[in-house]
Amino acid sequence: MDLDFLTPDTLLRKAREYSRKLWVRVLAMGLLAFVVLGVTQLLEGLVPKKLAVTLSGSAADRLLQIIADAMLAVTIFSITIMVTVYRATSTQWTPRVHRLIIQDRTTQNTIAVFIGAYVYALVAIIMRELGIYVDERAFVLFIVTVLVLAIIVINLIRWVLHLQTFGSLIDTTRQVEKVTRAQFEDRLKEPCLGAHPLTGDIPEDAEVMRAAQTGYIQHIYPEAMDEIAKKHGMEVFLNRPIGSFVFENEPLLQVAQRGEPTREGGRDRDKFERHLRDCIVIGDLRTYDQDPRFGLVVMGEVGSKALSPGVNDP
After folding, report:
1. Which residues contact 183 (CB under 8 A, 6 or more apart)?
2. Most Cβ neighbours (<10 Å): which of 22, 118, 170, 199?
């Protein structure tokens, strides 16, 4: 998507999408570990010398070694649990619920904190071996390491409490209900996602734009679409709802010329169609975003599975 059409609302939508990905949170915590170590080195010079020598570097070394040894094992254990629960819920309840299990915030935050703490300890040990943190100037490093340990303990307690219900039928159905209710509330606030409802027929002069790939319509960026349409003097008609399946070269939307394009928009039709297609995300899996009907489908599948003779859970 062109940077000119990345409105604040579009950026916020993209940020929400990426925030649900595990690798984004893990990368953020890893980068935070480097930043914390850099800030620690800067703050070390502000500590009075009499106070700095009260704690030796060996005290921080022991804590760093404990974190490095424990976090690797705990992270592998947590990832194993996540994969096991993912497979169990997909088999026992419905395969379509796995998207929520993967996007579980508590699980993602816990794994990200564990990996971030491991990176922090590993880099700190390397810096100690290189002589960047000397024994006489390790006061702030020790204090920060204690804080990291406290964060690890808090997240470990949350993780243990979360495991009591993680992947169970009650927890799974509550997650599906919660996200479905949220999507319905958003759709009631904006029934057409900010667009104008189509009350009549599509104009006869509207030209068809076809899908560039096969898949489900997962997400649209209405603010960016509106900006593109205005700059090119076009009126856009999206007659395929979110969640519908489209084939490659199947009609996706229709456009009609309703004014002169602006100087920034230009008259490049290929560029206009490319930018407009970038505003419609098509993938091989149906998602909960902007698609409250999908939540109802998943809830119906969970209910049907629970009523089967194999499960028989009223």
Report:
1. 288, 289, 290, 291, 292, 295
2. 118
Those residues with Cβ within 8 angstroms of residue 180's Cβ, 6 or more apart along the chain or in another chain: 288, 292, 295, 296, 298, 299
Question: Quick one: tokens of 239?
Answer: 């007659």
Q: What's residue 52's pLDDT?
A: 64
Least confident of 61-65, 95-99, 160-164, 175-179: 95-99
- Of 122, 99, 154, 153, the closest CA to residue 30 belongs to 122
Strand 251-257, strand 234-237: pairing = antiparallel
pLDDT in tens, 280-307: 999 988 888 888 999 999 988 888 877 7
For residue 128, which phi and psi values (nearest 5 degrees)?
Answer: -65, -40
User: Which domains, and CATH codes, for the chain?
Assistant: 19-167 (no CATH), 194-289 (3.90.1170.30)
Gap between the Cα atoms of 103 and 61, Å rounded: 35
For the beta carbon of residue 264, count every other beta carbon within 10 angstroms. 8
pLDDT in tens, 188-198: 988 888 888 88
Residues 268, 299: Cα–Cα separation, whole Å:
45
